[in-house]
From TrEMBL:
<feature type="binding site">
    <location>
        <begin position="328"/>
        <end position="332"/>
    </location>
    <ligand>
        <name>ATP</name>
    </ligand>
</feature>
<feature type="site" description="Transition state stabilizer">
    <location>
        <position position="179"/>
    </location>
</feature>
<keyword id="KW-0418">Kinase</keyword>
<dbReference type="GO" id="GO:0008776">
    <property type="term" value="F:acetate kinase activity"/>
</dbReference>
<keyword id="KW-0963">Cytoplasm</keyword>
<keyword id="KW-0547">Nucleotide-binding</keyword>
<feature type="binding site">
    <location>
        <position position="92"/>
    </location>
    <ligand>
        <name>substrate</name>
    </ligand>
</feature>
<dbReference type="InterPro" id="IPR043129">
    <property type="entry name" value="ATPase_NBD"/>
</dbReference>
<feature type="binding site">
    <location>
        <position position="19"/>
    </location>
    <ligand>
        <name>ATP</name>
    </ligand>
</feature>
<keyword id="KW-0808">Transferase</keyword>
<comment type="pathway">
    <text>Metabolic intermediate biosynthesis; acetyl-CoA biosynthesis; acetyl-CoA from acetate: step 1/2.</text>
</comment>
<feature type="active site" description="Proton donor/acceptor">
    <location>
        <position position="148"/>
    </location>
</feature>
<dbReference type="GO" id="GO:0005524">
    <property type="term" value="F:ATP binding"/>
</dbReference>
<dbReference type="InterPro" id="IPR023865">
    <property type="entry name" value="Aliphatic_acid_kinase_CS"/>
</dbReference>
<feature type="binding site">
    <location>
        <position position="379"/>
    </location>
    <ligand>
        <name>Mg(2+)</name>
    </ligand>
</feature>
<comment type="subunit">
    <text>Homodimer.</text>
</comment>
<comment type="function">
    <text>Catalyzes the formation of acetyl phosphate from acetate and ATP. Can also catalyze the reverse reaction.</text>
</comment>
Length: 404
């Protein structure tokens, strides 16, 4: 058994941020505090902290890169009460290729991640750097990799394939899917709320600055919008989503873009920001849409594409029983949920606009054939659960070896 009050840490490296949280380790981990370092690489990087009792702190921090941000976080954590009881650290890995579940981070795994870092240049290099720094400082702790791609390991072969020469498929160029930790958490919550109904035909819509949808049947992912990288699928805050390959070729030729500049264009200058020319934030765009046609078009395109993906996945699933909205937009923008679902009555999706406006958990009408729910996601808690399970298993194996 774990010693009393053993804790764990979760680290979630993004394209320009590090989210972190400390939990008391248990079958159901209890949050102690959480926080983030945002806008890494910019002049006004910010350190945010939230304690369990809701007391918040926020201050500027020098973070010109992930190395400096990680060092600051390491030094800050050392001063926190309870950090001396941390036994393991769970790291979110956005792209894990074909790893089926969370794994203990070994030198071999780090080497493998370095070999595929170009699969996701916006996340993997920074995540590897964070892991190596924390492992060097806390070598005695168990470090666990929790892969966003693992949830989608069940995708049928036909859903993974890309229509390009087979030599690329053999090299691992296929559709993987992302937001898996969020989807795994949402499915756990769905089973708690609806029981066996959660094993039906489900569409999960994780709608935030990064947005994707997943089609789930019998508890398994059978299709998803994001593909080889998190830049694919539906339009997002600053990511383009799917593009005609000819558009990519023409843009690179017209503006003389090299691969690095093109990657920056589709990941950081496109999406809602590119269309509106003002903001990637949905709340900002909603406030401006009545007076700014660009903002209105950005919002309209987002809703149109999500609606289109829902229809597409209904055909893959053979119908629909449950639609779940999550993520920053999915959880907090009733008007967006309403616009996405408008006109889908023929498919059995009918919202109760009063419940929707109140952000209730179930927002569909009683006679709606499809149940529509709003479920806040919690990737950090999912990382904590996966890490705890692996830690328990590792310690049990250690004891068994010693007792032989």
């Amino acid at each position: 058994m774990l010693s009393e009050n053993s804790n764990l840490l979760t680290i979630n490296g993004g394209s320009s941020s590090i989210k972190f949280a400390m939990y008391e380790m248990a079958k159901d981990p209890t949050l102690i505090f959480s926080g983030s370092i945002d806008r890494i690489g910019m002049d006004n990087a910010i350190f945010n902290l939230t304690y369990e009792n809701k007391v918040k702190e926020s201050f500027d921090v020098y973070s010109p890169g992930f190395y400096e941000a990680s060092i600051f976080l390491i030094l800050w954590l050392k001063k926190q009460s309870g950090f001396d009881r941390v036994k393991c650290i769970g790291h979110r890995i956005v792209h894990g290729k074909n790893h089926k579940k969370a794994e203990i981070i070994s030198n071999a795994l780090i080497k493998e991640l370095k070999q595929i870092k170009d699969y996701d240049p916006d996340h993997l290099p920074a995540e590897i750097e964070i892991i190596e720094l924390f492992k060097s400082r806390y070598a005695g702790m168990l470090h666990v990799a929790c892969f966003d791609t693992s949830f989608h390991i069940t995708l049928p072969r036909i859903a993974k394939m890309l229509p390009i020469p087979r030599r690329f498929d053999k090299a691992g160029i296929q559709r993987y899917g992302f937001h898996g930790l969020s989807y795994a958490y949402l499915m756990e919550e769905l089973k708690i709320k609806l029981g066996v109904e959660a094993n039906g035909r489900v569409i999960l819509a994780h709608l935030g600055n990064g947005a994707s949808l997943a089609a789930v049947k019998d508890g398994k992912s059978i299709d998803t919008t994001m593909g080889f990288t998190p830049a694919g699928g539906c339009v997002m805050g600053t990511r383009s989503g799917d593009l005609d390959p000819g558009v990519a070729w023409y843009m690179m030729k017209r503006e003389g873009l090299n691969t690095k500049k093109f990657n920056h264009l589709i990941n950081h200058e496109s999406g809602l920001l590119g269309i509106s020319e003002t903001s990637a934030d949905m709340q900002d765009l909603l406030q401006k849409e009545s007076s700014d046609e660009r903002a209105a078009e950005a919002v309209a395109l987002f809703c149109y594409q999500i609606k289109k993906w829902i229809g597409s996945f209904m055909s893959v699933l053979g119908g629909l029983d449950i639609l779940v909205f999550s993520g920053g937009i999915g959880e907090n923008a009733p008007i967006i949920r309403s616009r996405i679902c408008k006109g889908l009555g023929f498919a059995g999706i009918v919202l109760d606009e009063d419940l929707n406006g109140l952000n209730e958990t179930q927002i569909s009408m009683e006679d709606s054939k499809v149940k529509v729910l709003v479920i806040p996601t919690n990737e950090e808690l999912m990382i904590a659960k996966c890490t705890t399970d692996l830690y328990y298993g590792f310690k049990n194996k250690e004891r068994q070896r010693k007792n032989k």
